[in-house]
User: Fold this.
Amino acid sequence: MNDLSLAWRNIWRHPRRSILTMMAIGFAAMLLVFMLSFQFGSYESMINASVKLATGHLQVQGKGYNTKPEMRNVVPTPKAIMDKLSKTQGVDSVTPRAQTFVLASSDTRIRGVLVTGVDPEREKEVFTIPSLIRNGDYLSDKAPNTVIVGALLAKRLNTGVGKELTLLGQSFDGSIAATVVTVRGIFKSGIDAVDRAAIQMLLTDFDDLFVMNGAVHTVVAIIDELSQTAPLKAALEKDPLLKPLAVLDWIDLTPGLKQSIQMDLVGGIIMYGILIIVVAFSILNTFLMAVFERTREFGVMMAIGTTPRRLVKVMLMESMFMTGVGILAGMVTGALLTVYFSHAGISMGGATDLMAQYGMSGRLYPRLSLLSLLVGPTIIGVVTFLTALFPALKIPHLKPVDAMKAV
Amino acid sequence: MSAVTARDVSKIYTQGDVKVTALGKVSLTVETGEFVALAGPSGSGKTTLLNLIGGLDTPDGGEVTVNGMAFSTMSSGDLAELRLTQIGFVFQSYNLIPVLTAEENVAYILRLQGVGKKERQERARAILNDVGLEDKYDRKPSQLSGGQQQRVAVARALVSNPAIILADEPTANLDSKTGDSLLQMMREMNQKHHVTFIFSTHDAMVMEAAKRIVSMKDGQIVADKTKC
Ligand SMILES: Nc1ncnc2c1ncn2[C@@H]1O[C@H](COP(=O)(O)OP(=O)(O)OP(=O)(O)O)[C@@H](O)[C@H]1O
Ligand SMILES: [Mg+2]
Assistant:
């Protein structure tokens, strides 16, 4: 009769209590695996949505342009930069853009807008705006002197597909730039800030209109793996060609996104903390009960020569087994649940505010990673072990004579 | 050499301001192979004395020796070792580990002593046969009657060939017939294995079985009679 089988039989003294304890641990582990996967998954979707709507993962700009976007702060030779980026391992696609603020006027209204010059073929490869056209068509090289307009802006300007807009701004050399363009399409990104103020035109038209002489304001890159953002950025920063310019990642370009994620994560951590505390108390209860109701038995066992050490060992074996089984079961079910929903997706019943802000649809996909699989269960394991240690360490303080007086 | 000597042992409990003298300077010598009953009314100090002899409790004064070894010179670890090898215990009730079978309960002591598996089984079964439980090896305590449970407890106390077996009211929870037969069995074991038995009781019938009756009252030994 070794200690392990003694521990095993002790567990099954109260099958219901033990199973409930294991289920509590398992449920907590499952919930943590799923919730963390869900959070990480939705962060990735948020980042991807935001990145693919406009910013890309990385951008090369003139130094200081991000904080103070001046017309004359340019990337003078976009061709070379684009070649460089395209050839870099891990970069998926690259596109140049130029942008400035202009006054746009329809027959009846005038608005200040941000006009971006884009290469439609390249934009179509990875960015989402080309697919968000509600009326008309996206830009095409074959249709010069046309623009696409944000839905809210179109409404405010009281314009529509086929109608004309007059754009008035300042060109690269400081002269006045003015032109008349035709609205080719209306897009709706779902992000009010974009839909209210953005129009896009062909980069070639932009170049002519603002006398850019081939210069652009930014070269945008989409990369294969989100996690490669930081290393790629670091590598590019060291490149002599890019030295005079600034390399920015999505965090620099959308600081609010990172903050939102951090806030959401903190909220989650608080909730998980509470969950773990609740589980810890349930474990504590189980093992305090076990020590309490076995006090007499411990007294007898010590009287006949069992060392307290051995009793503690058996007790810890019991708790470790229950914790282990609970956690394992929780990890398996949590992983299965996560994998299922990572294919099926979870309908959020209309996107939450946070999601909508970053242009996401109402479906979220949890994403199982080593991190989301292990973090929660590890914490539960450590906490429950420590919690079970406390009642077990009461045993050595028992004196056989006193213990045997207990009922 | 005497199996047990107790010299002027005393135990005083303090409850608040009140001092209860559970045992006042008691001296007792038990020779190897004796079968001694500790008699006396409730509260007379029987359990206290047995606990001191068994090394489960330390006296406030006086000295206990078992097989010539003085407790006062021993560390608590030595004392635990001594309990494991030299002293067998039978308590009034709940003696057994509920999750272990009769055989496992008996073998558990041998396991604590580091005896090998095969020998454990042989010795546990032999002793269970001795106490008349040859067909109950695989029963859990909850599947045994009170008398049978006490027999397992005696078997467990016997199995390690201790110098003495201390039994605190082993028959208290049994009807008189079952109690009698348990005592009978203990007497047989006493003769067969030459083990010293000291047991307490306040049942006059049970005392009859003993050759020597030590009577206690108010923490003192008031009589010590040996039948011829
Ligand atoms: N832990 C304790 N604290 C205070 N007093 C105690 C304690 N244990 C025993 N006593 C007192 O010591 C005295 C002797 O008790 P003991 O248990 O030895 O009697 P006993 O002869 O075994 O009685 P019984 O036949 O009822 O088992 C009693 O007066 C009892 O109240
Ligand atoms: Mg008593």
In short: Chain B touches chain A through 26 residues (CB under 8 Å). Residues 35-58+85-226 of chain B form a domain with the Rossmann fold fold (CATH 3.40.50.300). DSSP finds seven helices and ten strands in chain B. Helices of chain B lie at 46-53, 76-86, 102-112, 117-130, 146-159, 176-193, 204-207.
